[in-house]
From TrEMBL:
<protein>
    <submittedName>
        <fullName>Putative two-component response regulator CheY</fullName>
    </submittedName>
</protein>
<dbReference type="Pfam" id="PF00072">
    <property type="entry name" value="Response_reg"/>
</dbReference>
<dbReference type="InterPro" id="IPR050595">
    <property type="entry name" value="Bact_response_regulator"/>
</dbReference>
<keyword id="KW-0597">Phosphoprotein</keyword>
<dbReference type="InterPro" id="IPR011006">
    <property type="entry name" value="CheY-like_superfamily"/>
</dbReference>
<dbReference type="GO" id="GO:0000160">
    <property type="term" value="P:phosphorelay signal transduction system"/>
</dbReference>
<feature type="domain" description="Response regulatory">
    <location>
        <begin position="5"/>
        <end position="119"/>
    </location>
</feature>
<dbReference type="InterPro" id="IPR001789">
    <property type="entry name" value="Sig_transdc_resp-reg_receiver"/>
</dbReference>
Length: 140
C-alpha cells in the first residue's frame, strides 16, 4: 500500500525541514512548494492526500492559495499554519475552507495526530457509499 502524500506550502526553510523530517519519520511522503505557482503545478501533476499551507508564502496570504486550490479540488484536506493563535483568524480560515488551523510553534505530536485524523476522515468519506433510496412508492 503506498504511503500518504503531504504537500507543504511554506517558504520558511526551517519550518519546511522540520515538517518534512517529522512526516517522513512517520512514513509519509512529502512534497514542498516554496510558492503558489509551484504548489499549483505539483497539484496538477500528482495526487496529494493532505495539504499544509502557511499563513503567508512569499508575501501571498495562504488563504489566497487555499482559494485557488479549492477551485480545482474541493475535498483535499487542508491544514493552515498561523504565526499566532487567534480565534478571529482561525474562524475566518475555517470559513474559507481550511479543515484545521494550527499555530506555531507546532507541536510534533499534535501535527502527526492531526494528519492521521484527517487521513482517516478522508478515507471514510471516500469509501462510504450512500444508501440506495427506494424510488417507487407503495400504493395503499
Amino acid at each position: 500500500m503506498p504511503s500518504s502524500r503531504i504537500m507543504i506550502v511554506e517558504d520558511e526553510r526551517q519550518t519546511v525541514d522540520t515538517l518534512r523530517d517529522l512526516f517522513e519519520q512517520y512514513g509519509y511522503e512529502t512534497e514542498v512548494a516554496l510558492n503558489k505557482n509551484v504548489a499549483m503545478n505539483i497539484l496538477q501533476e500528482r495526487k496529494m492526500d493532505v495539504l499544509i499551507i502557511s499563513e503567508m508564502v512569499q508575501d501571498i496570504p495562504g488563504i489566497e492559495i487555499m482559494y485557488d486550490i479549492r477551485k480545482t479540488n474541493k475535498f483535499l484536506p487542508i491544514i493552515m499554519i498561523c504565526d499566532q493563535k487567534s480565534k478571529r483568524i482561525e474562524s475566518s480560515l475555517m470559513k474559507a475552507g481550511a479543515n484545521i488551523v494550527l499555530s506555531k510553534p507546532l507541536d510534533p505530536i499534535i501535527a502527526v495526530q492531526t494528519i492521521d485524523n484527517l487521513l482517516k476522515m478522508k478515507y471514510i468519506a471516500e469509501n462510504i457509499k450512500p444508501k440506495k433510496r427506494k424510488t417507487s412508492l407503495k400504493k395503499k
